[in-house]
Amino acid sequence: MDSAGLRELLTFYADAGVDEPLLEEAADRFEETRTEAEKRAAQRQPAQQKAVAAPQARPAAPAAARAAVPDDAQAARAREIAKSAESLDALREQLSAFDGCNLKTTAKNTVFADGNPQAGVMFVGEAPGRDEDIQGLPFVGRSGKLLDRMLAAIGLDRTSVYISNVIPWRPPGNRDPSPLETEICRPFIERHIELVSPKILVTLGNPSTKLLLNTQTGIMRMRGNWAVHRTPSGLEIPTMPTLHPAYLLRNPAHKKLAWHDFLAIKLKLEEAI
Ligand code: URA
């Protein structure tokens, strides 16, 4: 294949989200992270201590090693930290400093939010993709461009809406976040919504709908019907579940369903203001 053909093929892969080169043999990243963490911990030990340390003694696992395999303790820690944030700036800082989710170790950026926190409506998607990870902003890739067009169709843009995701770190290779990773991130998005206190919440796609509306019912049955998101402190926010723009890119025939949902959002916003 010539270089133009190769470039075209690589562009095709990148557009399809294939941007992680794989090895012939599976690599144990957990083991690598643990070994790295042990090395760093050993370097931090004062020389004197090193001299007396038993050769096979393993140093206490530092935060990065604990985060490699998510555990329930990290979810509890996330709940405590998120609860203590008194402002959006504080929450952003705490999220950026949080080391309890392994997704952070492979992400380039913590994707917090975009848009206007004073807006009447907040949109919540699933997780950043490749473009969002690079730019550190939600919905800036292909599905973000479609979301912008859908917003424009009801007279909104990023100055009149606020946008975030359930997961603030891109899962490697765009894989689905695990249930425990989602549980670790949940307190942050819940507190995020509580601090913004939008008049209306819009969940984009299945994962954010299931999480924020506490339901197992699929998006096709949920979409188009107003529901209620209850914040941890008991605030009730009218919520419209709708189809994710990435799904609409794959299934353009369903755009008419999303249009129906967006008209309902527009109407509710007019009533609320
Ligand atoms: N999909 C999402 O759910 N969120 C983003 O930010 C981008 C794509």
From TrEMBL:
The protein's Enzyme Commission number: 3.2.2.27
GO MF term list: 4 iron, 4 sulfur cluster binding; metal ion binding; uracil DNA N-glycosylase activity
Lineage: Bacteria, Pseudomonadati, Pseudomonadota, Alphaproteobacteria, Hyphomicrobiales
NCBIfam families assigned to the protein according to its UniProt record, in alphabetical order: UDG_fam4
Region described as Disordered: 30-72
Low complexity composition-biased segments: 43-72
Protein name as it appears in the record: Type-4 uracil-DNA glycosylase
Domain Uracil-DNA glycosylase-like intervals: 112-263
GO biological process terms, semicolon-separated: DNA repair
